[in-house]
DNA sequence: GATTCTCTGCATAAATTCTTCACATATTTA
DNA sequence: TAAATATGTGAAGAATTTATGCAGAGAATC
């Protein structure tokens, strides 16, 4: 059973979160301050942290950073309204996702599960038909030989391998890899896709069979056939 | 069974610490002054020292330093209130962690165990292709010849050798080597990396093959190929 | 207090990566 | 089939990131 650490200074919010998440099988720990949460983490492993941004004493952003210095536990920030600035800050401070209040049950569950699914490759290592991607060392190997990638290429490769068979629009790729407030249009993505394909091909990997163009939509990585 | 050396001029505090720590299996030695503590250490090995900062005669900081000159036993400082300055000083003087009074049982235990856990992984000696790093003597040898490193350089070297193949961002390097809340520019890291590389090269070690730049991310030590 | 070593930060050079554009090619639609 | 829309490609300048030299501040040592 997965353990979630819920951190919010409002007890009602904690209860609400727990009300949604407990019935579907999550073990919920509630803490009313960031300090208590950090404190708890020092002795108990958890699978995911839901962290409110607005809290007295230590706010969510500082807490997020603090936690990141010590643990890799994924963090979802809770923001009042969709304050873009908060969201961006949160993601820059090490958060994995955000949920803006008010949220509905469906969204909450979806995001929690998405982050956990992502986390499942917690070792940071993914392999696929001879390809081996290691997020710790930032390496991509094909049959043991390293393929040197640029940051953007590595980000794309990681995104594709962790979300196989999912089609990404160019816009989605940008927000996922570039960040949440970048404006690049034109053929920029295409260029990077091309470069990535070329590097894979040059290394002997049949990229054309896997990194596919979905006409009119975007790109996807074709996983298990 | 682990032995803890508790040092505080207030007997009540010693009793309190012991009250919390003895029941969970630690053997507690109480000393009411730094001198007594050092004296005790000269003939008895201990696993961890809890050291009060405010003491008559010799204060905790001086004691910490003194102890560090002779032993590597981990030290947790006890500070009255969370006086930032004390904390920073303590960490700079060789302490491994700090606990501010008042503390509760849970926090105390957590920090003690965290430090001991950390300690367990530190045999203190690492070798790598002719390099030999000794954390006890703070020495780095290459083929038996010493390479003189500054503290920062040694810290980086240790971090890299104990975390081979892992990429560290500059930010991460700062928090790991410099300490908890230090503000240094990013380019400073580069300078230290350069100096470290140069010293390794000058000693004959092919640093360029191992201390690698991960473009757009940070630095890493390339271990086994 | 002087000296030496260390740390930090800047300016500039060098290296690498990113973006863009024009146009070719491909696919869909009319 | 022609027109319209979308993707692929090559090349080059722009932008970003890192390397390097240097100098002053800061610490430690004598």
Query: Segments of chain A where pLDDT lies below 50 for 5+ residues?
Result: none
- Topology as H/E string of chain A? EHEHEHEHEHEEEEHEHHEE
Distance between the termini of chain A: 31 Å
Q: Hey, which two chains have the biggest interface?
A: A-B, 11 and 17 residues
Beta-strand percentage of chain A? 15-25%
Question: Share of helix among residues of chain A?
Answer: 40-55%
Largest sheet of chain A: 5 strands, parallel
Number of helices of chain A: 8
Task: Tell me the overall shape of chain A.
Answer: elongated
The total of beta strands of chain A comes to 12
Radius of gyration of chain A: 19 Å
> Which structural class best describes the helix and strand composition of chain A?
alpha/beta
Strand arrangement, major sheet of chain A:
2-1-3-4-5
If you average the pLDDT of chain A, what whole number results?
83
Oligomer: homodimer
Description:
The structure is a homodimer of 225-residue chains. With 225 residues, chain A is an alpha/beta fold. Chain A is built from eight helices and twelve strands. The first copy, chain A, has helices at residues 11-21, 34-41, 60-70, 84-92, 105-119, 151-162, 170-178, 188-202, and strands spanning 3-7, 27-31, 48-52, 75-80, 97-101, 125-128, 131-134, 139-142, 145-146, 167-169, 211-214, 218-221. In chain A, the strands form three sheets. In chain A, strands 2-1-3-4-5 form a five-stranded parallel sheet, with helices on both faces. In chain A, strand 7 (131-134) and strand 8 (139-142) form a beta hairpin. In chain A, helix 6 (151-162) crosses helix 8 (188-202). The radius of gyration of chain A is 19 Å and the shape is elongated. The first copy, chain A, binds a DNA duplex (30 and 30 nucleotides) through residues 150-153, 184-188, 190-194, 213, 215-216.
